[in-house]
Design a protein that fits this description.
Keywords: Glycoprotein, Membrane, Signal, Transmembrane, Transmembrane helix. InterPro entries: QVR-like, Snake_toxin-like_sf. The protein is an alpha+beta fold. The protein has one domain. It is 23% helix and 23% strand. It has two helices and four strands. It has a four-stranded antiparallel sheet. A hairpin with a 2-residue loop joins β1 and β2.
Amino acid sequence: MEDDIEFKTIPTIQCSTANDQCVKVKAVNEGLEFVIRGCRSRIYKADVSIPQNLHCRSGSPSLCFCKENFCNSASSKFQNLLLASTLIFLIIFFFFPF
């Protein structure tokens, strides 16, 4: 089944250094949308100058920076597992009452 997927899921990472930020870059062209999420230190070259106080910039490409882990809308495996478990519990509870 995994062979049918063109783009594989990339593991979730935490931006671990104190000065690092989570980044979301989104580009839209002719109805296609491309999104990159990651850590500023891993996406940008060291010599690229971007103001530290920049939060979001609109347009294409749009840029958003934030300090907390997973604040760029990336989700952790734990969050996905918790959501799936809750949904399964609710389905069982409502459709198969004791």
